[in-house]
Design a protein that fits this description.
It contains 16 helices and no strands. The protein has about 300 residues and is mostly helical. α13 runs parallel beside α14, α14 crosses α15 and α15 packs antiparallel against α16. The termini are far apart. The mean pLDDT is about 85.
């Protein structure tokens, strides 16, 4: 039977591997190493052909650079600006624990998902991962959910699925949380003050208020039934265009139903994360509150749309 130190080292090594896969595109040497490991080859099924790796590099750019920014400030700050307050809190937490901030490498800010996994790996080796888990769990479950949804059955979808397992094992080993760190996650804000389409779209497209990340890919899927295309604009502008298109055809109810269906998948993901994290599921309460606020807002919008049609 492996010793506790060996098991902990194994968890740290897995976190480091996941960090590497998120921080840079997969290159042939690492792809070959993954393919040579029976377990990782089965779990990740990495491409090893030059052409497939080239296509995967383009997918990395689409997912982790353009569409799904892997930064805590995108999920916890309002407005969601890379390098915002959440990034500063993360730096302060690491400094307070005496941990060296990992090299930024290609990351634009210290709260990149890959760097956070690197820090968790270092904390695992020092036997104090529990001190970092509150801030990591405040947003990584949402981002990994978005990555799994957009990457589906591709390589990065499998990376996200393995990261879920790794975080689950880390929380189980950490034991029950004594007290979640103050400021680890922002509380769910209230409903949008204004009810114009621009404000509503911005609220729904801000993870710190809505609890989900509607990627551009998901938004393009939403607009298909209503015809037309979406310009090269921000996500909230895209959603506003979708609302306007549905209103012109009298199909706002249909759009709201599609958004509710999307929300149900996020609520199901939240439930699965609660099962995975065990005692640490308390860290997901702010996320649950945000999704509940989105549910309530969509219900109100549906009622308003029906009242307008009846009038």
């Amino acid at each position: 039977m492996a010793s506790a130190d060996a098991v902990r080292a194994g968890r740290a090594a897995l976190l480091d591997l996941l960090a590497d896969l998120l921080l840079r595109e997969l290159e042939m040497p690492l792809a070959a190493q993954l393919a040579a490991d029976p377990t990782l080859a089965e779990v990740l099924n990495p491409p090893t052909e030059v052409e497939a790796l080239s296509a995967l590099r383009a997918e990395y750019t689409r997912l982790l650079v353009l569409d799904l920014p892997p930064y805590s400030s995108v999920f916890l700050d309002m407005p969601p600006v890379i390098g915002g307050d959440a990034a500063l809190r993360w730096e302060q937490t690491l400094a307070g624990l005496g941990l060296r901030l990992p090299a930024l490498e290609r990351a634009a800010a210290p709260d990149h998902a890959g760097l956070i996994l690197q820090a968790l790996a270092a904390a695992e080796r020092a036997s104090h991962a529990a001190a970092l888990l509150p801030m990591a769990l405040a947003w990584l479950p949402q981002w990994l959910t978005a990555l799994r949804r957009d990457a589906e059955e591709t390589f990065y979808g499998r990376v996200a699925a393995l990261a879920v397992v790794a975080l689950g094992e880390t929380t189980q080993a950490a034991g029950a949380p004594v007290l979640l760190a103050a400021g680890a996650s922002a509380p769910a804000p209230g409903e949008p003050e204004e009810r114009d389409l621009r404000t509503l779209s911005r609220w729904l497209c801000t993870p710190a208020s809505s609890g989900w990340l509607l990627s551009k890919r998901r938004l393009r899927l939403l607009v298909r039934p209503f015809g037309g295309g979406l310009g090269i604009v921000d996500r909230d502008q895209m959603l506003q265009q979708v609302f306007e298109a549905s209103g012109l055809d009298g199909r706002t109810d249909e759009l709201l139903a599609a958004l509710r269906a999307e929300l149900e998948t996020w609520q199901a993901a939240l439930h699965a994360w609660r099962e995975t994290l065990g005692d640490w599921k308390i860290a997901l309460d702010p996320w649950a509150a945000r999704l509940a606020a989105t549910d309530a807002l969509l219900a109100q919008m549906h009622a308003a749309a029906q009242a307008a049609e009846a009038g």
